[in-house]
């Protein structure tokens, strides 16, 4: 397992990365394939990419945490970004605040360097599923989502946060039956 996730070519990539640049990369890949992505589907695609990245590299893909929400794992800031779309396809890119200009601007899609194949293969494998099917896959009763809710109901100081250790523990086992 490679614990030094630094890549230098013309760009320098360190992990974990921001969820919004990753979202824009995934939206770009989907657009290239003429596939429409709803906010729920985007959340779940990022969740499975994050889980596979954790298992393969031993490091988190994104710097933000997932939380256990009603329809599975959600990154709250990504939810806020695209909630106005409801169940409709997203037709814009995520934005970030630029402290230099004091304006919101589009988050440049992330260059994953030598790790692109890990994320792209997960994206390709799960893209064929509907948002509802991905939601069902991501919040099974014995999975990380349910475990986070159980801990939350017992008063966990983590709230609804889904710990990366729980994601790895569950998905390492289930990866033997992986869909890709």
From TrEMBL:
<dbReference type="Pfam" id="PF13274">
    <property type="entry name" value="SocA_Panacea"/>
</dbReference>
<feature type="domain" description="Antitoxin SocA-like Panacea">
    <location>
        <begin position="42"/>
        <end position="145"/>
    </location>
</feature>
<dbReference type="InterPro" id="IPR025272">
    <property type="entry name" value="SocA_Panacea"/>
</dbReference>
<protein>
    <submittedName>
        <fullName>Putative phage-associated protein</fullName>
    </submittedName>
</protein>
